[in-house]
Amino acid sequence: MFRSSDDNFALINDESQATSSVIADGLAMAMTGMDLDTKILINFPEQMLIDNAGFALPRENCVVEILENVTPNKKTLRATQKLKDAGYTIAVDDYFGQSQLKPFIELADIVKVDILELATDFEKIEKTIQGLPQGVKLLAEKVEDQGTFEALAEMGFDLFQGFFFSRPEIIPGKKLTSNELTKLQLLGELSNVDFEPVRLSEILQSDPHLSFRLLRYINSVGFGLQQSVTSLKRAIDMLGMVQAKQWLRSTILADLNPSPKAGELAYLSVHRAKFLESVCTITRLEGCDSDILFIAGLFSLLDTMLGLSMEDILNMLPLDDRIVNGLQGHGEISQLLQLATSYERGKWDETADQLSRLGVDSFEAELIYVRARSWTQEILGFSKPC
């Protein structure tokens, strides 16, 4: 989606200009390190649809998303049909039963249903989707909790968008498995200021799977090496201790819980960690410690991933007091975590206030956010090596 460098990021005076900016500049940034199977949905206002701007996009990756205020007339429907005939995927945005959108619905591959507009009333939602063409993919927008997600999945929704991923689902009396506990203890050890470099080699040598993944990562296309690296010591030396620890922390966190929801949360946690670490390098805050912020961001969703309270998790980990206070909602780290959260949820007024307080330019923050995402994709192995 379009973001301006001024005025809270999303001030749109001209919808066509905004979409043109996304196509011209944003798409290249978005696709850096992205899996080739990933789809990108791009908003299309009426004039851009009529002007056949969709043909500037790669049809394998991009979905033309028709905004809810586009009028279905001869020009727009003809333009949509041309895109569909050419093999493009068509999505209709913010549907909650509007009859005027039906002509677009007939051509759509994906229909995005606005759950909050239907007051999360499951009877209304079911009635709304009953008349949709068979075979269309249903995408639920603004899903807020696990219960709603499960009910909609039962109803036949394929895709989901919203904040339910980051809300904890605490199971009373839950205990960690021995595997989860071992990984959690390892994360704590890696986050200790007294961590010995030799220990990094010991951890990798004791786990062939981790060793293989490190060597695959160091030999991936992003490093541009002339010769393959086959030695763990050489791999660690090339990365440097700081990045090697970051890679290992991120990889262990991603392996902590194999469920699809936890996979999304691991991605979000690593992205958040790198974003906060990068913010630390450009902020005017005194005594900002980039490694402390990386760890705080990385651990900020552990309660949701493991189904335990943050207090119970912190009791298991020997962490710096600044991290503990931040994860409990206190101090400067807590405010920086709120910055990451407001960014993720599109709360642009709140984001702008936070950036202003930190003395960080909004455009610079946007670049940092995109670069942090590319780094996350690479470090978790989402990009495809040659």
TrEMBL record:
Q: Name one Pfam family in it.
A: HDOD
Please give the superkingdom of this protein's source.
Answer: Bacteria
Q: Where is the EAL domain?
A: 1-182
HDOD domain ranges (all copies):
176-364
The entry's protein name is Diguanylate phosphodiesterase
Organism, as annotated: Pseudodesulfovibrio sediminis
